[in-house]
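Workshop exercise sheet. Pairs work together: one partner reads the sequence aloud, the other fills in the structure field after running the prediction. Swap roles for the next sheet.
Pair: D.N. / O.F.
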Amino acid sequence: MDIYTSGRRLYTSAMNESKNNLFVPAAIIIAGALIAAGIYFGGGISSNGGESQEPTGPSAEELAKNVKPVSADDHIIGNAKAQVIVIEYSDLECPFCKTFHVTMQQIMDTYEDGGKVAWVYRHFPLNIHPKAATEALATECVASLGGNDAFWKYTNKIFEITPSNNQLDLAELPKLAKEVGVDVQKFDDCMNAGTYKQKVDTQMNDAIKAGGDGTPFSIIVGSGGDYIPLVGAYSYEEVKQIIDSLLAKK
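Structure field:
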């Protein structure tokens, strides 16, 4: 059973007000712990006291160049032709993504009016958060029914109310859809059809090709050909410093 099937069953269960327990295999928990320790906090390789060698594969910067260009299918705040674009791959049940979402809201509050910076949101629901895949599908259903603005309002609301770590009650999803002006019956029909599973799958695979193996994973793209990967929940000050350095380029 994949995470989408699991997520849809959880969603259906929530709609029927049943109370099923979700047990995550120990192997996935261990993998998640490794991700949290090695990725979420920050982009470095810790030493274990042994000998080290130079990595043989492409650098993070080279992998980041594999990121898919911004297109009409993307959810974006700002100008798609902006001088600097932050492309974020996110998991709606990741606590670090929740923190970074606030950071990016602050970034756009600072730069959006100038038209020089844009923010693109893409999906990267991790296996350790089965509900995140369902939530990703929900945001796409809302976008299809209410447009780009509804997508962002809905995504903001999910991050606002979720306790993170797969703890959001999925019964809240249609309620939030109604709050942003979406017809609940059409929303439920879209969810039950799994219409946007392929889109979410594609974005997950794109993130991996660009070097992502944890969330949040972002790539800051500068108009001068810069591709700067960010692994983890960077602070507002850190992201602003990178953006300012790219904007200063001629």
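Discussion prompt: The radius of gyration is 18 Å. What would you look at next?
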